[in-house]
Amino acid sequence: MGFIDLHVHTLASDGLFTPQEVVQWAYKKNLKAIAITDHDTTDGIEKAIITGKQLGVEVIPGIEINTDYNGLEVHILGYYIDYRANWFQELLKNIRHARQIRAKKMVEKLQNLGLHIDLDEVEKLAGDASIGRPHIARILQKHNYVQSIKEAFDKYINNTGPAYVERYKITPCEAIKTIIDCGGVPVLAHPGLIGNLSIVKELVDCDLQGIEVYHSKHNPETTNLYFHIAKQYNLIITGGTDCHGHLYGGQPILGSLNIDESLLHELKKRKDILE
Ligand code: AMP
Ligand code: FE
Ligand code: FE
Ligand code: ZN
């Protein structure tokens, strides 16, 4: 029996580890497989696959697309996407471009609130990555405007915060369709954080294939609830820590949910059916 983690971020989006470091941690933690699921980018996948081959850790190519469902933020995971497809990369490029424009607007709002941070610094921190609010939060923390990333969100940049700016998002159904069109398996990420049950049926009608039942922020009740919903709609069950590379007692949360590798077999079966 082996354990896996199907939801992991790298420096390519808002994670803190390079793809190589993520795989090294997976190896140290004796994981059989991990999926790289960065926000709106696949740039971390190839490097992770190479390191995975060296260390004997299976790396599944994935993505997490942040979408908008009537004002609610809904994240769709895609597994086994053909990330080399040109049209797919073009779409992701457009989404990332919108992120850059939105980061600029958010920095301006923060400046208007009297906080002295500049866009260059945020962009430099993000580097080639898909730029997001966590990068802004880290700069706020660096300049001691907040003591933690959480405080940055709570005080300034969560969805109701004074410096929040909407960004361009596709709908969950569009994300599901996109993932299927590039050969992937679409899965609803951390539904417990959305708190809207009716969305599942609607997404099943647009061809959703799975639900992330196991997630670091799901409590036992939520896990149980979505387990049964997955069964009801014949959806596959996935799970992952959503590790962003933060250390707790010197360790990232990667692999800490002890997700059984049998879930990966079911994911592969579903991929084969869709082909
Ligand atoms: P963005 O995609 O730029 O809107 O940023 C969303 C990302 O910010 C999420 O994927 C999380 O990594 C992070 N995030 C969202 N809310 C919080 C929060 N309250 N505390 C810490 N990180 C958060
Ligand atoms: Fe994130
Ligand atoms: Fe997410
Ligand atoms: Zn995530």
Overall average pLDDT: 96
Radius of gyration: 18 Å
Give the strand order, joined by hyphens, for the main sheet.
7-6-5-4-3-2-1-8
The major β-sheet equals: 8 strands, mixed
Strand content: 15-25%
Entry keywords:
275 residues; 5'-3' RNA exonuclease activity; binds zinc ion; globular; 10 helices; 43% helix; alpha/beta; TIM Barrel; binds adenosine monophosphate; 2 domains; eight-stranded mixed β-sheet; binds fe (iii) ion; DNA polymerase, domain 1; 8 strands
Question: What does this molecule look like?
Answer:
This protein is of the alpha/beta class and about 280 residues long. The protein has 2 domains: about 5-85 and about 175-275, TIM Barrel (Alpha-Beta Barrel); about 90-155, DNA polymerase, domain 1, CATH 1.10.150. The chain has helices at about 20-30, 45-55, 85-110, 120-125, 135-140, 150-155, 170-180, 200-205, 220-230, 260-275, and strands at about 5-10, 35, 60-70, 70-80, 185-190, 210-215, 235-240, 260. It has an 8-stranded mixed β-sheet. β2, α2 (about 45-55) and β3 (about 60-70) form a beta-alpha-beta unit. α4 packs across α5 and α5 crosses α6. It is globular and about 55 Å long. The two termini are about 30 Å apart. The mean pLDDT is about 95. Bound molecules: adenosine monophosphate, fe (iii) ion (2 copies) and zinc ion (ZN). Adenosine monophosphate binds next to α5 and α6.
Summarize the structure.
This protein has 275 residues and is α/β, with parallel strands linked by helices. It is built from ten helices and eight strands. The chain has two domains: 3-84 and 174-274, Alpha-Beta Barrel (TIM Barrel), CATH 3.20.20; 91-157, DNA polymerase, domain 1 (Orthogonal Bundle).
